[in-house]
Amino acid sequence: MLEYFSYSRLSTFKQCPAQFKIRYLDGIVNKDESIEAFVGKRVHEVLEYLYNKRKDESITPIIDELFEVYHTLWKDNWHERIAIFRRELNWEYYLALGEKCIAWYYRTYYPFVEPVIGVEQSFDFELEDGFRFIGFIDRVDKTNEGKITIHDYKTGKRALAQKQADNDLQLSIYQFAIENEYSTETDVSLVWHFLQAGSRVESQRSDVQKLKHKQDIIKRAKSIKSHIANGQVFEAKESMLCNWCYYWKECPSKYTANPYSGRKYT
Questions:
Q1: Which domain covers residue 89, as residue numbers?
Q2: Is the pTM of this model over 0.90?
Q3: 68-105: string of b/e by CB count within 10 Å (b at 16+)?
């Protein structure tokens, strides 16, 4: 029984229905993760620490403190089932990559005086009857005039072009969640921070865009519900992305464990 939806669930279903079934219907939990995902989590945690310090204590940590937090989080969370797909690289490269992301953000946005009202802000709402969505927003700002900005941090290599950002459904879901929470027409801006690329992209949704995005989101969710209700096959979609999937043993198209998992931290 699927109780709720999220952007990651919609994205996983589109990318590979078989992986969606394994993770979200069969409930199989796999401890393997990619080094890229690991770095992303640690960088997000550092930025969460930074803004909580600003919001709760009115303190701006120096960058050396953020690096110390980052290294502690890295060591405390490292495990032996982190996969490095690019064999020519090692953990030290990725450790430095996370530092680079943090340094760029710090240089760009210091002294962090944004009107923050939410850090890792959770949401849980019905986009339409029977379609409940949950998730977390990296950061939400709100000015005294009521203008809201939704921020999302990305540590991947590729940055979105403007057209891609304008059509992105993830932050559209976040906007619907914020508008639902405030129960009013709100001036909302969407901002992506591409930390590795060192760039920022902004977008706003027109009423026409919001209607189209809502229709697209519900269409994807209905497709998932239809698969479940009609007992349809959740087919595997093989692609380059399989290298970052750690459900090979459960996958109907694979017969071994992912060969890229298990490089040890030494």
A1: 16-112+233-244
A2: yes
A3: ebbeebbeeeeeeebbbbeeeeebeebbebbbebbebb
Which secondary-structure segment (H or E) carries 9?
helix 7-15
Question: Is-contact 86 102, C-beta < 8 A?
Answer: no
Kindly report each contact of residues 227-236 with a partner whose C-beta sits within 8 Å and lies 24 or more positions away, as own/partner: 227/17, 228/2, 228/25, 233/17, 234/17, 234/18, 234/20, 234/21, 234/25, 235/17, 235/18, 236/16, 236/17, 236/18, 236/19
- Helix (H) or strand (E) holding 111, with range, is none
Whichever domain contains 185, its CATH number is: 3.90.320.10
In a domain, 79, yes or no: yes
Please answer whether residues 159 and 201 qualify as being in contact, where contact means their C-beta atoms are separated by less than 8 angstroms.
yes
Total domain count, the chain: 2
pLDDT tens digits along 206-216: 999 999 999 99
